[in-house]
Design brief:
alpha+beta, 2 domains, three-stranded antiparallel β-sheet, 7 strands
């Protein structure tokens, strides 16, 4: 089925049914959240067969990965580093995201890569 026009829709229908059957709520078309007791898992589906899985408890994530692997053939690519042009870094308090590479590419595109940087904090932005 892979490669057919219907494949993405068929995959979405299959994974949707699986996630709903396993206690996930479909809050947006590609966002699934499971919150039962101390379990919190968040899944984001992207493109045909890409999936992000996160939550505050590594054991719950690992257990659900085992469940997924028993139902579907999956690859675990490890911790998220880049996704949709956004860089992610795991920190003590959670996950930090930035678009440094995108910003650098924009600066190069407009010949501004040698400009002097200025640091603003939220709320200190100058008004036009």
């Amino acid at each position: 089925m892979y490669g057919l026009k219907q494949a993405p829709h068929a995959w979405y229908e299959k994974i949707h049914a699986y996630l709903i059957a396993h206690g996930f709520c479909n809050t947006e078309s590609t966002l699934y959240v499971k919150s039962e007791g101390d379990v919190l898992l968040i899944i984001v589906l992207y493109v045909e067969d890409d999936m992000l899985l996160t939550g505050p408890n590594e054991m719950h994530i690992a257990d659900f990965k085992v469940e997924l692997n028993s139902a579907f053939e999956m690859s675990n690519l490890g911790l998220l580093h880049h996704y949709l042009g956004i860089e992610f870094k795991q920190c003590d308090g959670g996950i930090a995201s930035c678009q440094t590479k995108y910003i650098e590419a924009l600066l190069c595109r407009f010949g501004l890569e040698d400009c002097k940087p200025i640091c603003y904090t939220y709320g200190d932005m100058p008004t036009p």
